[in-house]
Amino acid sequence: MIRRGRLEGWLKRSIDDLPRWAAINGVSFRGIKIGPLPGLENRGSTVIAKQELRSEKEGPLMVVPKDLIISRLNIDLFAKSDQQLKEVLEAVGEFGHTTRGAVLIFLLMQATISCPDIHDVGVLNPLTEYIKFLPDELLPTFWTEEEQELLVGTTLRPAVRAKFNSLLREFEHLRTSTQEIEWCAKYWWDEDEGQVTFEDWMSVDAMYRSRALEFPRIGDSMVPCVDMANHASGDATVALFESDEDGNGLLLLRDGKDKRAEEEITITYGDEKGACEMIFSYGFLEDNVTSARMMFLNLDIPGDDPLRPAKIAVNSAAPGFRIFEKEDGITAWESDFIWLVCVNEEDGLDFKFMQTVDGDQEIMTFWGQKELENTLKLKSLLQQEPLWDVYQLRAVCLLQDRVERQIETLEEMGEPEKGPTIREVPWQLAGRLRKLEGSMLERCRRDLEDQKTKLLDSGVVRQYLGISEEPNEEVDFS
After folding, report:
1. Residue 220's beta-bridge partner residues?
2. What Gene Ontology cellular component terms go with this record (predicted)?
């Protein structure tokens, strides 16, 4: 079982009690129910048709009152009547004004309110009980260190490490910001009696990450009961979620998606998401997934680049590049960062230190005589240059080298053995991800080689490199 920390407010309620909770709190079901699929109880609960459903005749399958939606707006409303919630949101500063920060703190407060050892904290509300119906999700942040070692060579490994570091920073910020609040000091942080641990913060993160939906006109939210629906992509998606003019949450059948009794009602969590993101955020992959779809590889500025410190200081792009699959199966890439890596002073890139009115120094970036206020705009400037093909060739060579190193890391890992302490789900997911990403990297390597070959045929490139017309002449790209 996933660790839930020390808060006893995480004690679970049976899904059989959910219809009563829904009826009391105004959630209406039409022709559907929530529970396990017959014969597939090990998959947990989902939304199921109780009767034959025809899309041309059906209204909303589910209506969730707007007051129950866990959104940034509603948390502000809850805080008006819950003084302790308001205290914490204000104490953490800007983090409490973000949707993620507000939702995670709200969820932690509901577990606190439910804890039998904690009294006179928070205001009981319908969502205090609802979170007890949510299942534990085996996301990679809850994998053991041994299970995470299976991810070496995949893009999920650095993503999990980065998430751990981010969660630790958030948790420490929460602790230091609220330790002077009397009830927080007593019930959350006291060395002997404090109830909140880092595992509790991991739990609210997993709950939000795996259940948040981008709801139309509402934004990222957790919508009770709608978030019980499982994911299916493409044509297998049965229903969609929407909000009505009053802000209530709706679950609607898609056109032409008729369903028989006892069949599952699925939604999409995002068809564009790659295999890595699906495992990272939801802890599963569909059985029919045959491609990694999208990958992000980190990229560093070479240590011998004399402009490296200045480039790092001014960079405003994600330090890496995205590989994705086009409809024709060919891989493509995109990156704003790579252009900062592959140009230097001799090309026209320059940095100058300017004195501010406060006496501090500020780095200013220039391309030629033009000030570059944002490095994200560098590519558009390079595209206007006569040497654009040369810059593209440099970028492709750098990316190809990075892809080859990633392939080597995967190959060095080999086929890991399944130890007795490794659980089946992490073992299966890690193995599938390694194969999917390995296949995509191999295709990307070939596609980058094709791009390089085409660029070498450019007259601008040949002139720049001093390549003669001899067809077999070797080229040194260093």
Report:
1. 214
2. nucleus
Q: What's the burial of 358, exposed, middle or buried (CB within 10 Å: 0-12/13-18/19+)? A: exposed
Residue 364, Ramachandran bin (φ over 0: left; ψ between -120 and 50: alpha; else beta): beta
Starting at the earlier edge strand, list the strands of the sheet with 331-334: 294-298, 320-325, 331-334
* pLDDT higher than threshold 50 for residue 2: no
| Dist CA 400 CA 448 (whole Å) | 6
Centroid of chain to Cα 447: 27
- Selection from 439, 467, 441 nearest residue 453 by Cα: 467
Written as one letter, the residue type at 114 is S
Return the pLDDT at 39.
Answer: 64
Say which residue the tokens 């995002």 belong to. 270
Q: Is residue 42 helix, strand or coil?
A: helix
Residues 159, 174: Cα–Cα separation, whole Å: 22
Helix (H), strand (E) at residue 379: helix 378-382
Return the closest-CA partner of residue 334 out of 399, 275, 403. 399
- pTM greater than 0.85 (yes/no): yes
DSSP state of 215: E
Give residue-wise pLDDT tens across range 40-91.
Answer: 656 678 999 999 998 877 789 999 999 999 999 999 999 999 999 999 999 9
Burial of 7: CB neighbours in 10 Å, binned 0-12, 13-18, 19+: buried
**CA–CA distance from 339 to each of 155, 233, 453 (Å)?**
22, 34, 20
Q: Which amino acid is at 464?
A: Y
Q: Are strands 361-367 and 249-253 parallel, antiparallel or unpaired?
A: unpaired
In terms of C-beta density within 10 A (0-12 exposed, 13-18 middle, 19 or more buried), how is residue 377 classed? middle
CB-neighbour burial class of residue 442 (10 A; exposed 0-12, middle 13-18, buried 19+): middle
Q: DSSP letters along 69-123, please?
A: SB-HHHHHHHHHH-HHHHHHHHHTGGGGGSHHHHHHHHHHHHHHHH-TT--S-S-
Cα separations (Å) of 231 from 47, 283, 463, 475?
Answer: 11, 12, 53, 50
Residue ranges covered by each domain of the chain: 8-253, 294-465
**CA distance linking residue 463 with residue 262, whole number of Å:** 68
pLDDT tens-place string over residues 202-211: 999 999 999 9
Judged by DSSP in three states, 214 sits in strand
| Spatial separation of the C-alpha atoms in residues 48 and 45, rounded to whole Å | 9
pLDDT of 421 higher than 90: yes
